[in-house]
Design brief:
The chain is of the alpha+beta class and 370 residues long. The protein folds into two domains: 3-87; 107-352, 2-Layer Sandwich (BirA Bifunctional Protein, domain 2). It contains twelve helices and eleven strands. Strands 1, 5, 6, 7, 8, 9, 10 and 11 form an eight-stranded mixed β-sheet that branches. The chain has a three-stranded antiparallel β-sheet with strand order 2-4-3. Helix 5 (107-121) crosses helix 11. The N and C termini lie far apart (83 Å). The protein binds 3,4-dihydroxyphenylalanine. The site of 3,4-dihydroxyphenylalanine has 11 residues, from strand 10 and strand 11.
């Protein structure tokens, strides 16, 4: 059999395929289970060793040549199809606006606006950092060295390549690297919040591979835990629009803070009109019918982190905190499945979204519809 001629003929037919359907038919004809090339491969088993030695490489070369040609033609046809779509489709931006306003503000955007409004009033600026980070900013500078178990705990998405300085690249697992970037970029004193997307390989009703956090950082002279507690209390009262918010600070551990505290908020268990029991924030969690709910992590910034930020920890101190923004939205606006936040279902958005005209302001009340 003339394998070279068979190959030439197959390649010519592949090159002449006019669309993806025709190409798929050829793939099945050559490489499908009953395809002509697949059947040739099967004949190898029945050959004598000598025959196989001389024929095997030819059949394999034939299969490889056909397979490569199919891939190349597929890429070319797909490219051409995209070009054609781009040339044909258009958006007419001069069309008149709809009679009634359409679309809505996503609850996460709403909460981010509310956070910015509340913290701006306390003198905080909004800082940002890259979502594609390096492991120095995301871990090492935050006192999480290479061997630290917290690195594994974060379920990190890594990129295959390192940057030019040999640092591993990753999708940031928290907003804390913005602490380091802010210190290095602006020096002290600092008062910032850093809201944004973060990524972890995790997914269920309360975890999605992408979610949102807001980081807070204050660096100044003579900062202590009392400042942290007052700031969080003032923020949470404004955010939940209740004066009876009660916090409980629990000793905890984060590599980037020392001491570290986890903050719980008191809630009451109440029976709704539908007979279902709900949690309503407010009041002391130790009171009868009340409980504590974990809300955020925080602490006094670790000396090593202040040093990594290029500042002298004997001169500057500070506190930091990190909160899940989606969780705040769920608590305030009563959603129970986080995955629905990112499905893009317009019915969900119509139900939970906010009017674009409801801009959160402290004077009008930061809550939507106030
Ligand atoms: N980065 C932490 C996390 O993602 C949250 C956090 C805890 C941030 C304590 C802080 C902090 O700034 O002080 O789980």
């Amino acid at each position: 059999m003339d394998y070279a001629a068979t190959r030439e003929e197959a390649l010519a037919r592949i090159a002449a395929a006019q669309d993806l359907d025709a190409l798929e038919k050829l793939r099945v004809e050559f490489l499908g289970k009953q395809g002509s090339v697949s059947l040739l491969l099967k004949t190898l088993g029945a050959m004598s060793p000598e025959e196989r030695r001389s024929t095997g490489p030819q059949i394999h070369a034939l299969r490889e040549g056909v397979s490569d040609a199919l891939t190349a033609r597929k890429t070319a046809l797909e490219g051409a199809a995209l070009e054609a779509r781009l040339a044909n489709e258009s958006v007419d931006l001069t069309l008149p606006a709809p009679e009634a306003p359409r679309g809505s503000i996503h609850p996460v955007s709403q909460v981010l606006d509310e956070l910015a409004e509340i913290f701006a009033d306390l003198g905080f600026a909004v800082a940002t950092g890259p979502e594609i980070e390096d492991d120095w900013h995301n871990f090492t500078a935050l006192n999480i060295p290479e061997s630290h178990p917290a690195r594994a705990m974060h379920d990190t998405f890594y990129f295959p390549d390192s940057d030019t300085e040999g640092r591993r690249m990753l999708l940031r697992t928290h907003t804390s690297p913005v602490q380091i970037r802010s210190m290095l970029e602006q020096g002290a004193p600092i008062r910032i919040i850093a809201p944004g997307r973060v990524y972890r390989s995790d997914s269920d009703a309360t975890h999605t591979p992408m979610f949102h956090q807001v980081e807070g950082l204050v660096i100044d002279k003579g900062i202590h835990l009392g400042h942290l507690k007052w700031t969080l209390e003032t923020f949470l009262k404004a955010f939940f629009e209740r004066d009876d918010i009660v916090l409980r600070l629990r000793p905890s551990y984060f590599p980037f803070t020392e001491p570290s505290v986890e903050v719980d908020v008191g809630f009451a268990q109440v029976n709704g009109a539908d007979g279902k029991s709900r949690r309503v924030l407010g009041g002391c969690g130790d009171a009868p019918g009340h409980g504590w709910m974990e809300l955020l992590g925080s602490g006094m910034v670790n000396r090593k982190v202040i040093e990594a930020g290029g500042l002298d920890p004997d001169e500057w101190q500070g506190f930091a905190f990190g909160i899940g923004v989606d969780r705040l939205a769920m608590l305030k606006y009563g959603m129970d499945d986080l995955r629905a936040f990112f499905d893009g279902d317009v019915r969900w958005l119509a139900h939970y979204g906010f009017s674009a005209f409801d801009v959160p302001t402290l004077s009008a009340g930061v809550g939507a519809g106030a």
